[in-house]
């Protein structure tokens, strides 16, 4: 049985940016006693007191569920924890993304104060030597190894849909007029589709961010900051500072996990 665990350091932060009046982003990183790591970034939508409520509801709901878990039995259990309602183990009433989606959707359609709210969510779950990436919307997950910096998640936007269906090129995504139009988010439909990807994990740095970062800082500059010898906290602050220097056109949320040398 594989019992490999990784020691690491993490930092997360959100910033209102230079244009928005309110901050609808939220972020969090949690590590349990077994060494499992749960990273989350959520980007709310719907305006003040709506988007911030939705994103916080997602983050708090998943945080509560993670803290209440006594253990994770296997990789299959971790995936079910993130997105499914199940009765395989004793945690059938635990919150997960589909339960949270239903709560936000119902509130949005029964209370005019919350009408139109929703949220993206990007989650990275490190379990032993596996990395589970769960994505709804266009917040992103990146990994950084000694050789490569790459995006692990796929934006759920109309422009990416056009690219995947062969209607536009990958380069055209960056300038397409509907590149910011989401085709999936928490709270906008009664049922939820969650994109789950599983990767082998071997000490890569994991970066989660809202679009306020990657729309204001290009990927080579993000990589250069992550490859510095600065502390994890300083790197997070540097990413946000550069995003604001480049215009800060949206709220900015960043969560970063880095392994420590054995």
What structural class do you assign from the helix and strand content?
Answer: alpha+beta
Percent of sequence in beta strands: 25-35%
Q: Which spans of ≥5 residues are poorly predicted at pLDDT below 50?
A: 85-93
Radius of gyration: 18 Å
Summarize it.
This protein is α+β, with helices and mostly antiparallel strands and 262 residues long. Strands 2, 3, 4, 5, 6 and 9 form a six-stranded antiparallel β-sheet that branches. It has a five-stranded antiparallel β-sheet with strand order 1-11-10-7-8.
Description:
With 262 residues, the chain is an alpha+beta fold. The chain contains eight helices and eleven strands. Strand 5 (121-127) and strand 6 (130-136) form a beta hairpin. Helix 1 (51-68) packs antiparallel against helix 3 (97-110). It is globular and about 55 Å long.
Describe how the helices and strands are arranged.
Blueprint: E1 8-15, E2 25-31, E3 37-45, H1 51-68, H2 75-83, H3 97-110, E4 118-119, E5 121-127, E6 130-136, E7 140-144, E8 149-151, H4 158-164, H5 170-173, E9 195-200, E10 205-209, H6 211-214, H7 219-226, H8 232-245, E11 252-259
Antiparallel strand pairs: 1-11, 2-3, 3-4, 3-5, 5-6, 6-9, 7-8, 7-10, 10-11
Relevant terms:
262 residues, 5-stranded antiparallel β-sheet, 30% helix, alpha+beta, 26% strand, 8 helices
């Amino acid at each position: 049985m594989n019992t490999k665990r990784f020691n690491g350091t993490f930092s997360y932060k959100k910033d209102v940016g230079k244009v928005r009046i309110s901050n609808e982003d939220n972020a969090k990183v949690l590590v349990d006693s077994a060494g499992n790591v749960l990273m989350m970034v959520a980007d709310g939508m719907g305006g003040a007191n709506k988007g911030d409520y939705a994103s916080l509801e997602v983050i708090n709901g998943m945080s509560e569920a993670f803290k209440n878990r006594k253990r994770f039995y296997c990789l299959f259990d971790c995936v079910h924890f993130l997105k499914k309602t199940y009765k395989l183990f004793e945690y059938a009433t635990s919150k997960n993304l589909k339960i949270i989606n239903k709560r936000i959707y119902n509130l949005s359609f029964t209370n005019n104060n919350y009408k139109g709210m929703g949220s993206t969510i990007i989650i990275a779950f490190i379990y032993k030597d596996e990395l589970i990436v769960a994505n709804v919307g266009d917040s992103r997950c990146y990994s950084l190894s000694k050789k490569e910096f790459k995006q692990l998640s796929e934006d759920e936007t109309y422009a990416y849909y056009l690219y995947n269906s062969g209607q536009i090129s990958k380069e055209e995504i960056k300038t397409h007029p509907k590149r910011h139009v989401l085709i999936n988010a928490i709270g906008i439909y009664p049922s939820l589709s969650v994109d789950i990807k599983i990767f082998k994990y071997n000490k890569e740095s994991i970066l989660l961010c809202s679009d306020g970062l990657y729309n204001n800082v290009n990927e080579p500059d993000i990589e250069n900051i992550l490859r510095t010898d600065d502390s994890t906290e300083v790197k997070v602050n540097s990413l946000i500072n550069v995003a604001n220097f480049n215009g800060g056109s949206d709220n900015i949320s960043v969560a970063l996990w880095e392994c420590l040398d054995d």
